[in-house]
Design goal:
Blueprint (H helix, E strand, L loop, with lengths): L6 H20 L11 E5 L5 E10 L2 E9 L5 E8 L6 E6 L5 E5 L7 E3 L9 H5 L3 E3 L5 E9 L4 E9 L5 E8 L2 E9 L4 E9 L7 E12 L4 E11 L2
Antiparallel strand pairs: 1-2, 2-3, 3-4, 4-5, 5-6, 6-7, 8-15, 9-14, 10-13, 10-15, 11-12, 11-14
């Protein structure tokens, strides 16, 4: 027996098809949930841009997101490994596929790469900093040639005074005081931190002078620079 589709049913079907066509024309996807597998985003000519969901990360099943270059190489990977004991990880890659930056998943704190240099100081210079002044006006003792990648600079100095002398230390960039003077008390031999906003354009080289002066007594104010770092605001 032949069943004739009712006009209202046909009309509903047509309306539903029209709605789907409008969605496709808009190129949008809303309120979608992917509980397994994954989603790939590609350019109109087929190049992979991103993969979201499940994928293989160095032989380990993982869930997360990968971002690709047009050449096919990875730019970034963010994922959690699946199963018991899984943990998060992220890495940024250069064009050769080498990791530029990544987190340390063993400790769960800080960076794995890049390796960052630390600054050694001969212990004799910790005990007796080699650069000193007896001037009552600020005198440059150190110059830091600083490429401005961050908006601020952090400088840790070792400062020493004798039993009758006190002083001050500050940071100066071409006449602009970026770190106000800090007091070095009488009979000091310790670490002191200075912070300042670095002027100039991004990646410009700025000359940051560490200046000191004597404020009391007849001895010297001696200063050694221990650490210099660009830091965030």
């Amino acid at each position: 027996m032949t069943t004739t589709r009712q006009p209202e049913t046909l009309l509903s079907r047509i309306r539903d098809l029209e709605r789907q066509i409008r969605e496709l024309r808009r190129g949008t996807l809303s309120n979608a949930t992917i509980s397994q597998g994954g989603l790939e985003v590609r350019t109109p000519d087929g190049f992979l841009i991103a993969r979201i969901g499940e994928f293989d990360a160095w032989g380990t099943p993982a869930t997360g997101m990968e971002i690709y270059r047009r050449s096919g190489g990875l730019q970034a990977r963010f994922f959690d490994t699946t199963g018991a004991g899984g943990g998060g990880y992220w890495a940024l890659f250069d064009e050769a596929g080498e990791i530029l930056a990544s987190e340390d998943t063993v400790s769960g704190s800080g960076l794995a790469t890049p390796y960052i240099d630390t600054h050694p100081t001969p212990y004799s210079r910790v005990l007796t900093p080699p650069e000193s002044t007896t001037n009552g006006t600020f005198t440059p003792l150190w110059r830091i040639h600083h490429r401005r990648q961050h908006p601020r600079i952090f400088v840790r100095v070792i400062a020493k005074t004798d039993g009758s002398t006190s002083g001050e230390v500050r940071l100066n960039v071409d006449g602009t005081i970026i770190a106000a003077p800090i007091t070095i008390p009488v009979a000091a031999n310790g670490y002191y931190d200075l912070h300042g906003n670095v002027p100039g354009a991004l990646r410009s080289i700025q000359h940051v002078d560490v200046e000191a002066r004597r404020t009391a007594g007849a001895g010297t104010v001696a200063v050694e620079v221990a650490i210099t770092q660009g830091v965030q605001s």
